[in-house]
UniProtKB/TrEMBL annotation:
Protein name: Acyltransferase 3 domain-containing protein
Matching InterPro entries: Acyl_transf_3_dom, Glucan_succinyl_AcylTrfase
Lineage: Bacteria, Pseudomonadati, Pseudomonadota, Alphaproteobacteria, Caulobacterales
Top-rank taxon: Bacteria
Organism: Brevundimonas intermedia
Record keywords, A-Z: Membrane, Transmembrane, Transmembrane helix
Occurrences of domain Acyltransferase (ranges): 13-371
Positions of transmembrane segments: 21-44, 50-74, 95-119, 139-160, 180-203, 223-240, 252-272, 292-315, 327-345, 357-376
Pfam entry (one): Acyl_transf_3
Record's keyword annotation contains Hydrolase: no
């Protein structure tokens, strides 16, 4: 399918596939963490490898920034289609409500797994550290932080869009913005978009470079690097929806984006200490500046490469990809305690780490997909999370994606 056909069709199948893939890759990302050369995760496997941490690095480099770019594009699309109040109602139902309902359940499940693992390690209540005191500055959002940050960006979109629309009745400023967005499509785009992120990373206190953009999973105010990196991607995606014809130009540049992503990504990894990472904050200003610059370019080059490759190779309709994209929201919500439980189960097995990783990822996906099919897709939960309930024994029509 050509990009012109994709843009004019009802769905942007390539971007929808990338959005679902970004969520599903979260299962692989978290599953690798027990196999890092140095223990950084609560569950530490007896098999360790730099290849596991290298796989984590590659996925982490582009995954969530790509997700926020697509979320911005779909948000702008929905806002134009449904209007302000329709958009607000949809986002409250599909994003805010799942965060409110599942956050406490997921956190409880994680704590249960932690207690189970501590018992297996011979620890007792007397060995447990003092319970931390939580407030709005350090509340553990778990992996559901992305829903909270999405809500922040949705509010920002509404607040910025209203005065812009009121002041630009002639469309002159809009044409200027469209021209700027068009000017960013090319190998130079990652350098321009990566510069603000690089600056934010350089100013980020106690920045551990290996992890790139620090995950805003604690506290209600995201760290400045996450706001800049993810917010810029979200905003760029929203403005890109005004010029969806530019998706064809992005697709055409895929070899350049991929080459730049590999080169800048390898440089960032080397400066961060390699796949056996130095998990300490960077202190030397010059080294930190070079590393931040490399991460800024690598992040956006990999995002553009992911978008371009998704448009090129997954632009057509596929029932399997459509199903997985629909299921990815539910899978991401429930996956973390399942991953941790699977890691606890296999941590002492006499198997190589790739086999264990495959068992963890495969087991979690099997359980998650089964629960999606039996409990979510055909029930009221399917309407809540995916926008429609697919009746049993009926050829399904594509559901709305959670980012739309």
């Amino acid at each position: 399918m050509s990009i012109s056909e994709t843009v004019s069709s009802e769905r942007l199948h390539g971007l929808d596939a990338l959005r679902g893939g970004a969520l599903l890759l979260g299962v692989v990302l978290h599953a690798t963490m027990s196999f890092f050369p140095a223990q950084i995760w609560i569950v530490g496997d007896d098999q360790r490898s730099v290849w596991a941490s290298g796989l984590f690095f590659v996925i982490h480099l582009f995954r969530m920034t790509s997700f926020f770019l697509i979320a911005g594009l779909f948000a702008h699309m929905m806002l134009a289609r449904a209007g302000v109040w329709g958009f607000v109602k949809n986002r409250l139902v599909r994003i805010a409500a799942p965060l409110g309902v599942f956050w406490g359940l997921v956190l409880t499940a994680i704590v249960v797994v932690l207690i189970w693992n501590a018992g297996l390690q011979g620890m007792t209540a007397a060995d447990a550290p003092p319970a931390p005191e939580y407030d709005w500055t350090n509340i553990p959002l778990t992996h559901l932080w992305f829903l909270w940050v999405l809500l922040i960006f949705y509010v920002a979109l509404l607040l910025l869009r209203a005065p812009f629309a009121a002041l630009d009745r002639s469309g002159a400023w809009g044409r200027v913005v469209d021209g700027v967005i068009a000017g960013l499509i090319g190998p130079w785009g990652p350098f321009v978009l990566g510069a603000p992120l690089a600056l934010a990373l350089w100013f980020q206190p106690n920045w551990i470079a290996f992890f790139g953009v620090p995950t805003p999973d604690a506290g209600l105010i995201p760290n400045s690097s996450a706001l800049v990196g993810f917010g810029l991607a979200f905003g760029f995606g929203a403005l890109l929806d005004r010029r969806r014809d530019l998706l064809g130009r992005i697709q055409a540049w895929w070899p350049a984006y991929l080459g730049l992503a590999i080169g800048a990504g390898a440089t960032a990894l080397m400066l961060a200490g390699g796949p056996d990472p130095r998990l300490v904050p960077m202190t030397d200003p010059a080294t930190k500046a070079m590393t931040a610059a490399a991460f800024g370019v690598a992040t956006y080059a990999s995002v553009f490469a992911a978008v371009a490759l998704a448009l090129r190779f997954f632009g057509g309709h596929s029932r399997t990809r459509r199903y997985l994209a629909d299921a990815s929201y539910w899978i991401y919500i429930v996956h973390l305690p399942l991953v941790m439980a699977a890691q606890v189960l296999v941590q002492d097995w006499a198997l190589s780490w790739p086999v264990k990783l495959g068992l963890v990822v495969g087991g979690v996906l099997a359980v998650s997909l089964a629960s999606y099919e039996l409990l979510i897709r055909h029930s009221f939960m399917g309407r809540w999370l995916n926008g429609r309930r697919v009746p049993w024994r009926r050829s399904p029509t594509p559901a709305l994606s959670p980012a739309e």
